[in-house]
Automatic annotation (TrEMBL):
<dbReference type="GO" id="GO:0015179">
    <property type="term" value="F:L-amino acid transmembrane transporter activity"/>
</dbReference>
<feature type="transmembrane region" description="Helical">
    <location>
        <begin position="86"/>
        <end position="112"/>
    </location>
</feature>
<feature type="transmembrane region" description="Helical">
    <location>
        <begin position="418"/>
        <end position="441"/>
    </location>
</feature>
<feature type="transmembrane region" description="Helical">
    <location>
        <begin position="38"/>
        <end position="65"/>
    </location>
</feature>
<dbReference type="Pfam" id="PF13520">
    <property type="entry name" value="AA_permease_2"/>
</dbReference>
<feature type="transmembrane region" description="Helical">
    <location>
        <begin position="312"/>
        <end position="337"/>
    </location>
</feature>
<feature type="transmembrane region" description="Helical">
    <location>
        <begin position="218"/>
        <end position="241"/>
    </location>
</feature>
<dbReference type="InterPro" id="IPR050598">
    <property type="entry name" value="AminoAcid_Transporter"/>
</dbReference>
<feature type="transmembrane region" description="Helical">
    <location>
        <begin position="447"/>
        <end position="463"/>
    </location>
</feature>
<protein>
    <submittedName>
        <fullName>Amino acid transporter</fullName>
    </submittedName>
</protein>
<keyword id="KW-0812">Transmembrane</keyword>
<feature type="transmembrane region" description="Helical">
    <location>
        <begin position="163"/>
        <end position="183"/>
    </location>
</feature>
<dbReference type="InterPro" id="IPR002293">
    <property type="entry name" value="AA/rel_permease1"/>
</dbReference>
<feature type="transmembrane region" description="Helical">
    <location>
        <begin position="132"/>
        <end position="151"/>
    </location>
</feature>
<feature type="transmembrane region" description="Helical">
    <location>
        <begin position="261"/>
        <end position="281"/>
    </location>
</feature>
<keyword id="KW-1133">Transmembrane helix</keyword>
<dbReference type="GO" id="GO:0016020">
    <property type="term" value="C:membrane"/>
</dbReference>
Length: 472
């Protein structure tokens, strides 16, 4: 593969893949689960520590295995083909393609803010609860357009990524500045005054409204459940940074630049996320955050900051953000499926590069499946169910750093995990706590995604048997 991506391009890929629509939406649900600005910020800080710790740990593996395929390659090299395949299976069926579908739909929904006729138009097709809308068609059109652009060569995808990621970083920085300069009445101290005591006296009725009278005390264990549920949103908004490892084969000096891109990119995004949440807490009271219309807390905050123009400003920002995010996801994901195909664990046509030296077949396979997920309308449910599995695979990969230190201490490590073993242990502890709390309090987020990945086992055994027969 040609080395056409420099360090700056890799950082833009990390940041662009992370910043999609989540930061503009998830804080509403998080506030409903937590009831306090204090705990909202605390959960984002925990997620930030967790994310950067994982990126620092992944750096050692990226330097050991500077090949295309990234996390798939790490898991395969450390734990064997079966573990690598299960990750790749989850990535293709839901993790990467489901995220592409969800981000494309977010683009469509916020476009409908600017073009209301998209919302008002009758469905193109409807049978019972299943329907195909113009917003879904727009989402699919975006996926097809970005897939086509990326088949034109890595430089086309790189240019698009840098322009859109740079634009949304500047726009977010502007929103953060305006969120403190233009707000007449700050709600920050009021929101922070609601700490543990307020949470323990908070109850939500069945209609989703905070009760004004007759509050009942809530135990500390319920707070832990609230933190776990809230982290589903913050964690989902903070994934996909590992996409840069998928394109290691096309990055200049990957042994150094991949780890730098992951650490610089994740740190910058988590600082931006924290600052945006401070804007929400400064511009809105907690009820306005928790019960923002359609969970669009960024729209509510922007209307408070900019007035009636706020809706248009945020709609444009989300459109830029989701378009750039999807470009990064589409560019990177196909490289994993191509690597799997080379290992005999994916469709054979995905192996081939086109005349522009990119895996066009893998790109189109990914794009077609993501488009079908858009039509199914189930991408949101699938992503909720897979959050547990995403963190589980992160944990297995981070554990791989410790495992290799014991199993193969003789390996030359161009980069060693900073503050080893503290950094990977921090991630494993927080990740374990998150997964255990979900298993206790939010089981609907756990077992369906786990079963979905386990369904890959019979597929793996079938492929393995077929490969052995061909070799004979």
């Amino acid at each position: 593969m040609q080395k056409k991506l420099k360090l700056w391009d890799a950082i833009m890929l990390v940041m662009g893949s992370m910043i999609g629509s989540g930061i503009f939406i998830v804080s509403a649900d998080m506030m409903r689960n937590l009831g306090s600005g204090f705990w909202l910020v605390a959960v984002w800080i925990i997620t930030g520590i967790m994310t950067v710790a994982a990126a620092i740990s992944y750096g050692e593996l990226s330097a050991l295995f500077p090949k295309a395929g990234g996390q798939y390659t790490y898991l395969k090299e450390i734990f064997g083909r079966k573990m690598g395949f299960l990750y790749g299976w989850g990535l293709f069926t839901v993790i990467q393609t489901g995220t592409i579908a969800a981000v494309a739909m977010a683009f469509g929904k916020f476009t409908a803010y600017l073009v209301p006729s998209l919302n008002d138009a009758a469905p193109i097709f409807q049978s019972g609860e299943f329907k195909i809308t113009w917003i879904q068609i727009l989402a699919i059109a975006v996926i097809i357009l970005l897939t086509y652009i990326n088949t034109r060569g890595v430089e086309s995808g790189k240019l698009l990524q840098n322009v859109f990621t740079g634009s949304k970083i500047i726009a977010l920085a502007g929103l953060i500045a305006a969120g403190f300069i233009l707000v007449d009445i700050s709600r920050l101290s009021e929101n922070f005054s609601w700490g543990m005591e307020a949470f323990n006296n908070l109850k939500k009725d069945l209609n989703g409204n905070f009760l004004k009278e007759g509050w009942e005390s809530i135990s500390g264990m319920t707070l832990l459940g609230g933190i776990a549920a809230a982290m589903v949103g913050s964690v989902f908004s903070s994934v996909a940074w590992e996409s840069v490892t998928f394109v290691s084969g096309e990055i200049e000096n990957p042994k150094k630049n991949v780890v730098k891109a992951m650490i610089y990119g994740t740190s910058a995004v988590m600082i931006l996320y924290l600052a945006v949440n401070f804007v929400y807490l400064n511009a809105l009271d907690r009820e306005s955050i928790a019960f923002a219309a359609n969970d669009r807390v960024a729209v509510a905050a922007s209307q408070n900051i900019f007035g009636s123009a706020g809706t248009i400003i945020i709609a444009l920002l989300v459109m830029v953000s989701t378009f750039g995010c999807n470009n990064g996801l589409i560019l990177a994901g196909a490289r994993v499926f191509q690597t799997m195909a080379k290992d005999g664990m994916f469709f054979k046509p995905a192996v081939e590069n086109n005349k522009n030296e990119v895996p066009a077949n893998a790109l189109w396979m990914q794009g077609i499946w993501a488009s079908l997920l858009c039509l199914s309308g189930q991408y949101g449910n699938l992503l909720d169910m897979i959050s547990f599995v995403i963190v589980l695979f992160y944990m297995i990969t981070v554990f791989g750093v410790i495992y290799l230190r014991f199993k193969k201490p003789e390996l030359e490590r161009p980069y060693k995990t900073w503050l080893y073993p503290v950094t990977p242990v921090i991630y494993l502890l927080i990740g374990t706590g998150f997964c255990v709390l979900l298993l206790i309090y939010k089981q609907q987020y756990t077992w369906p995604g786990f079963i979905m990945v386990l369904l890959g086992l019979p597929v793996y055994y079938f492929i393995n048997r077929k490969n052995k027969q061909e070799q004979q």
